[in-house]
Every structure is written in structure tokens, then in C-alpha cells.
Amino acid sequence: MPVPWFLLSLALGRSPVVLSLERLVGPQDATHCSPGLSCRLWDSDILCLPGDIVPAPGPVLAPTHLQTELVLRCQKETDCDLCLRVAVHLAVHGHWEEPEDEEKFGGAADSGVEEPRNASLQAQVVLSFQAYPTARCVLLEVQVPAALVQFGQSVGSVVYDCFEAALGSEVRIWSYTQPRYEKELNHTQQLPALPWLNVSADGDNVHLVLNVSEEQHFGLSLYWNQVQGPPKPRWHKNLVWPLEPDSVRTNICPFREDPRAHQNLWQAARLQLLTLQSWLLDAPCSLPAEAALCWRAPGGDPCQPLVPPLSWENVTVDKVLEFPLLKGHPNLCVQVNSSEKLQLQECLWADSLGPLKDDVLLLETRGPQDNRSLCALEPSGCTSLPSKASTRAARLGEYLLQDLQSGQCLQLWDDDLGALWACPMDKYIHKRWALVWLACLLFAAALSLILLLKKDHAKAAARGRAALLLYSADDSGFERLVGALASALCQLPLRVAVDLWSRRELSAQGPVAWFHAQRRQTLQEGGVVVLLFSPGAVALCSEWLQDGVSGPGAHGPHDAFRASLSCVLPDFLQGRAPGSYVGACFDRLLHPDAVPALFRTVPVFTLPSQLPDFLGALQQPRAPRSGRLQERAEQVSRALQPALDSYFHPPGTPAPGRGVGPGAGPGAGDGT
To answer: Hey, what's the torsion of the CAs at 256, 259, 263, 266, to 10 degrees?
Structure first.
């Protein structure tokens, strides 16, 4: 049982026991120092961090002695507090280091070295004060003129007013400099107590004994924290008055209406669950309060009081109370109100029964003639069951009633007026969320597939479309022209494959195997096969279309193109060529009408006059027509023009094989 506390204020008149103390007027701290010194107090307290001892750079000021004195700090004439004045005595420690030049030559050092010896000394002196439960550190700045700097001699003192203290307390004071050059000084002092006052306690009874002489005049004010209940009599006994009950002169309760005092008390109060149905309120002192049960659903909604059907109950501190419950539940909590304000709320059963559950609390109300009604407690109120409302309990009302009838709900309370039931919702939530999760997974899978396809498409677009260039090597000049065209196309977003750049693979695999593998890879990647027609290529195609197979006496330069025809012709004969093949020829070398009709089932472009259309056909099938197509065509044309000029206008006589039409070849146009 806590002992009632009190505050005693004792005003004594003149007495040999009371010391005469100096009075300081004003609430501000102050400092002053010995004549010749200058000192200043920092505006605010500092952190008490002494730090490590460091070597002194030369002469420094150091505390040598601490002296204390009790004074009174008075706000008003009759409003004074006990205060401890501290005086710090300072001395000069250390010495100047002799310059090296003076040691070597025995002469005077440079005049610049002598200047610090004539300078004043400064120091930052820290005073650290500790008296339970108070701790303070203040900083004093002290300056000593050069005339007073005498090594090893005291230079005076600095006084600080003052540290507040209480009668009977023990105080400890430290002093050191920043930086700290020496071990700090420390001083411990026991402040005097009131020798004429004695207080003792016996249970609820507090004994206050004043031992004063008959001639002593005094006034006594006693502040008592009155607990609930009738006032208790107070007795006093001394050498003057007889033993008789004293009447209450004044009854003052200064903290009864203080909100801070009530807040401190409720912060120290706790609810304790003793058994499944019993609990108590643990508080420092008696408090007027009432308690009731409430239901807290997961999700952060406020705890809903179960009043009615239950009622508020008055609470007595440290007295065991019982709930009229049949079973405990983690969602059941206790609310404690005082002065119509919620002070405490704790879910006492959560520690033993686990975290909050997603259960619905059903309130059963019983009326006359066995009439009863059910409602589900929700944040919006109590929803009648069955109901057509749009709340969760209303949508699941039929299932909740079935669970109640089948005994799947836990009965928490029961009396003649009604009952409380906790019905689990996990199975309905899990079933509903299973469908939601399934839909989300399907949606995520579809979205991932779409993103993957788009990623592959974007990746392919970034790499460029694959293009396989097939041609007939009529002569070396035409091969150089084909190489120039392939190099110019590589500057665009195209990946060009041509046998000119794969001679080693072509020799290792053979023409048929190499062209078959390149064609299959190009078409699988959505690329395009470009047939570059020349007089030699037209002649070979016509021969294939007439005979159906390649003859054994094929000319050497045309063997590679002849091998490619075995892979290309089936696509044209079976109608698979449109969209995957494109034809092309050079303007002054071959007319498009000279291309066999079977190969004209796909677009055939003349170069460089139809370069924009040709480049457009090489783009992805669903790619938008780029506005830079004309710019790219001009770029290819510029790269191709030197090769065209070299082929059609060689220095000297015209080169053989530069005719127009399917019959163009060596000797064409020479009259033989």
C-alpha cells in the first residue's frame, strides 16, 4: 500500500539554529571574478563530456581549488530557493619551450618567439554539478592579462551563482578545462537537513514531529493528498499543547484539478489479467474510474464498447474484478474511463490466446415470449441478420446463421437478456480470396506473356531485321557491287548475311547446306530473303524452270547461286514466297520485266531509283513507315554510287558482261 505523500513548507522566525544566508535577487545565473580578470558565462548549459587529457601547448590556466557557499535565490521577497555558490581558484601551470636557436647558440631567439610570452591567457572552465535527480554543466570563459601570468602562481578565482539544491541532499561538483590538460577537481558536500523535523510512517498513519523550543515562533502549512473516503483525523503532540485532536484549519488540494498530475498517474497505471475472468487496475493511488468490455476487430478500427448488452462497472484500484464471461477471446479488450475520457485500453487475452482474429461478433437480444434477434457488430454499427445491406456481415449473413445453428461459433457471454457469439470468418475469406488470387495469377501470366512478346519484338527491332542476300557471281566487278550494297544496308537497322562474308563456312559446309541453314534461320526470325537478279541469275533461273534440275556441266562462277535455287524455288512454287522474299536489280544492268514471271510474284525493285520502296519492303512487316526512310535511302545511294560508277564507267574500254536484258553477257553488243 503506497504511503500518502505530502509537501511541507516550514517558515521559521529568528532562531540560533537557522543560518543567515545571502540573498540573490533574480532567476538568472551569473558569474564574477577576481580583480584584474575578465570572465563570461555561456548562455546555455553544455554537455558534460570531460574528454581525454591532452599535452599543454605552453602555460595554461588550471583549476586548483573548489569552494562552495549556501545562498538564497529569491524570485520575490518571500519566494526563495536554496542555492549553492561555487568559486573556482585558478593558477598558471606549464612553461614555454625554449627555442632551438637559443639552446644551440646561447643567444636570444627571434623576436617573433617572444611575442606569445607577452600575451594574455584564456581558458574555458567547466563546472559539473550532480545532485539526484539533477545534473548540469556550465561553461565559464576566463581571461588573465599578461601582467598577472606568473608560472605556478595563483591568478585569482571565478565565482558562479548558482546551482539550486535541496536540504539534506548530497551534491558533487567537478571542475576542469576544455581542452582538459590535468585531472579534474572534485568536491562532495552534504547539505544540512532540518534538525527540528522528523517524519515517520506506520501503515496509513504519518507522524510529523516538530522539536522546537517554547520561545520559537513558527508557521506550519501541510499539504495532504487526500485519497477517496472520509477525511481522517490528524493528531499532533509537542511540549506546549496537550494531546487532543486538532481541527482542520484549511483544506487545499492543489493537484486535484491539475491535468498534468492526472496524466502522470494514468501513465503509471496498468491493467493486469489474473485468471481467464479476473483482472485488476494497478495504479499509484486511488482513482475514480469505470470499465467495460469492447470488441476490437483487426484492421485498425476503434474498439467498440459492448454497452449494451453489458454495462459500465466502477473500478477500485488494486481490487480484483471479474468479467461475466464464459470464454476468453483475443479480440475482447478492456476500456477504462475517467471523467468521461478514455484513459486505458488493453486486450488482456491477446498474450495468452494469440493475435486478433478475423471473427464476427454476433449480439443476440432476447425479448418476451422467446423472441430473439441477431445482429453482427461492424464498424458502421450492428447489422441485423438476415439483411440486404451492402456490408460484409450482411453478404455472409446466411452462412453466419448456419454456423451459429451448427455450433461453429464460440459463446462468450450469456444471461437472460442476451448472448455474445464469436463466429470465424477465415474459411469464407480464404475461399473468396482464392478466386481473387487465381484471377490475379491468370492476369499476371497473361501480362507477363504480352510483355515478353513485346520485349522480344523490341529486342528484335533493336537488333534489326535479318536479310539474306542471294546473287549470281557473274564477274568480279558485280561481286564488288554486291558487297557495296550489303555494306550500305548494314548501316541501317538490318542484319545482312551474304556468302561474300562467309567463304570459310561456305567451303566447310558446302553451298547447299550453307544456303539452306541461312534461309531457315532468316525466315524463322521473321527476316527477308533478297534475290538480286543479274543477267547470269536470270539465265540460271530460266534453266532451272525449263529442266527442273541442275545440269552436270554448270559453270563454276554460278555454282553458289545454282545451289541456292534448290532452296528458294520450292517456296515460290508452293506460294510461300510473298512476305518473305523481295527481288531487286540494278537500273542499267537489267529490266524488271526480264525477271522470270514466277519470281515476279514478289515485289521486284530497281536500284537505286526505287531505293525508298526497297528499304520500306525490308522493314518489319508491322513496323510503321519511318519518316527517315528517304534520308536512309539517300544514305544508301551515296554509299552505293562509287561502286556503280566503277562498274558502269570503268577506265578504258567497257568491261564485258555490262549489257541490258536477259541476253547480256560477254561479247554482247560487239557485232559478233
So the answer is: 40
